[in-house]
């Protein structure tokens, strides 16, 4: 009898231990899945300050048309981060854009896309941020947009207009690969957030999905299946290569926010997910821009060597001769991109023809690459083009000089129908185009005061009129 009791006790202990190990393994698996989901959602790009900040500690400045928005600390710090969030509160913040204190988030946080994420993915991501991320005990700068954009309560009304909180539903008529791609593009991966144009109220123009839009000083190009305006002439393999490495010969190189997406997110996704995204994009609704006459990557080469027109143009002892687009290109660009614009043999310095940055009808990416440079790390490869804007260690160029270089490149290697002005450069140097809503901001407070005064006067007049009638 004692032996039976002992065996039973041992069995119970072993069973309990096995159950504990199983529970721990299950939790570790959940955390690992959560890390994959957070990587696909590219949380690190916005919640890690590029200037030496710790992972997910926030304080990354997002330049929005309404002002600078500083991202929050999403580490499990109980004082400065989300360590006190319940899973329900975490889900509501991620998918509905509402903090635990009831305040609304700004849609710079792409909850309009995350709203379609599954319960399982949210659960896994919550486990990762609570148990798989190191807490960082550091505050972040407070976002202080000008009136009336600082009234977060207004976002409740905006959400009623533009937030689709319905869960993602697979299309049974489509393949599993298409549905996985749709989930990533329009949900966790939030490609639609940047690549779909915005209206006056900064809501997505859903009638033009993935048709391109400005993101600060950069242009997120059309990635619909249209062969001229979009990526319809790319192969699926080229799209996968671009997402994994940030470059595809004869097509494009990732810079700005897209470089961050490749560096922090896309290069780590499994091949199956990259292929699903590419497959979905290749089969998405094509959206054509009437201004586009040919594919952006189809311009060039034109066999133009900048040096041929410069040699002997000035005496050997002349000064201040680096003026005009050709001389500026020769002085600042040709050493890397070559005098003929063809780039280096290994294309580490890319060709300036057959390049979407120089072929698009929107020259913002060409200008911004000069202003802000290119900085992208993929695997053990670090792609770096120095900036020529403020703080450049190579040479700070003026708006006029950058316009001259841009026009030389466009005329000789890219889309010759596009011309860049000093004003165009100044706008992008200042953070990007200002929307009509932002332009009206200075007049909103006076307008509201006038409206209140008018309403009060109307009430006063109605009261007096009523009193007059009752006498």
Automatic annotation (TrEMBL):
Heme c 1 binds at residues 43, 46-47. InterPro entries: Cyt_c-like_dom, Cyt_c-like_dom_sf, Cytochrome_c-type_DH, Membr-bd_ADH_cyt_c. One of its GO terms (cellular component) is plasma membrane. Residues 1-23 form the signal peptide. It is found in: Cell membrane. Binds 3 heme c groups covalently per subunit. Its main location: membrane. Its cofactor is heme c. One of its GO terms (molecular function) is iron ion binding. Keywords: Cell membrane, Heme, Iron, Membrane, Metal-binding, Repeat, Signal, Transmembrane, Transmembrane helix. Heme c 2 binds at residues 191, 194-195. The chain crosses the membrane at residues 443-463. It comes from the Bacteria. This is Cytochrome c. It comes from Rouxiella silvae.
